[in-house]
């Protein structure tokens, strides 16, 4: 279903568990920093809204989305971390570079989650234009950071 048909910030919290003792890693790419900061704020606010403690949310930055995988692993390897949310924005350029990044990150963070048996959430905005990216960072299609936090809480409620 296209994002245009499902707002990223619409969700049900009926099945959520108590997350007051859960520890979350946020890994945020610095590329397109203004947008990734907005995604991170959306994720942070959603975790707090649903009971996470400020002191249990650990935010790290990485240079770009390609480094999200290693950033996720460096957090997920710690027993104290219950879930990791990866946030980045990749906007298509003149070459296929964006494809290589997106495929590497999708595959990489999937493997980290499977390796450490904990939610590692794919919060990557992958768009053709800057406008489309802003539409998914608090714009008309909601906030992908909110979606990432909801996915993390949902998986912890599994
Ligand atoms: N073009 C974008 C990048 N490129 C940088 C890579 O992610 C990586 O940091 C570099 O190749 C060094 O390993 N990153 C984004 O997050 N978004 C982009 O649009
Ligand atoms: C997605 C990217 O890495 C992008 O900025 C690279 O741009 P280009 O393909 O024009 O080199």
TrEMBL record:
Listed A to Z, the keywords are: Riboflavin biosynthesis, Transferase
Q: Which residues bind (2S)-2-hydroxy-3-oxobutyl phosphate?
A: 94-95, 136
Q: What is its EC number?
A: 2.5.1.78
Active site per UniProt: 97
* Gene3D superfamilies to which the protein is assigned, alphabetical: Lumazine/riboflavin synthase (3.40.50.960)
Q: Which pathway is this protein engaged in?
A: Cofactor biosynthesis; riboflavin biosynthesis; riboflavin from 2-hydroxy-3-oxobutyl phosphate and 5-amino-6-(D-ribitylamino)uracil: step 1/2
The molecular function GO annotations come to: 6,7-dimethyl-8-ribityllumazine synthase activity
Q: Where does 5-amino-6-(D-ribitylamino)uracil bind?
A: 31, 65-67, 89-91, 122
What reaction does this enzyme carry out catalytically?
Answer: (2S)-2-hydroxy-3-oxobutyl phosphate + 5-amino-6-(D-ribitylamino)uracil = 6,7-dimethyl-8-(1-D-ribityl)lumazine + phosphate + 2 H2O + H(+)
A Pfam family this protein belongs to? DMRL_synthase
The residues the entry assigns to the signal sequence are none
Instruction: List, alphabetically, the PANTHER family matched.
Output: 6,7-DIMETHYL-8-RIBITYLLUMAZINE SYNTHASE, 6,7-DIMETHYL-8-RIBITYLLUMAZINE SYNTHASE DMRL SYNTHASE LUMAZINE SYNTHASE
Function of the molecule: Catalyzes the formation of 6,7-dimethyl-8-ribityllumazine by condensation of 5-amino-6-(D-ribitylamino)uracil with 3,4-dihydroxy-2-butanone 4-phosphate. This is the penultimate step in the biosynthesis of riboflavin.
Please give the family membership noted in the entry. Belongs to the DMRL synthase family.
The record's section on NCBIfam families has: lumazine-synth
Q: What is this protein called?
A: 6,7-dimethyl-8-ribityllumazine synthase
User: In which organism is this protein found?
Assistant: Hymenobacter yonginensis
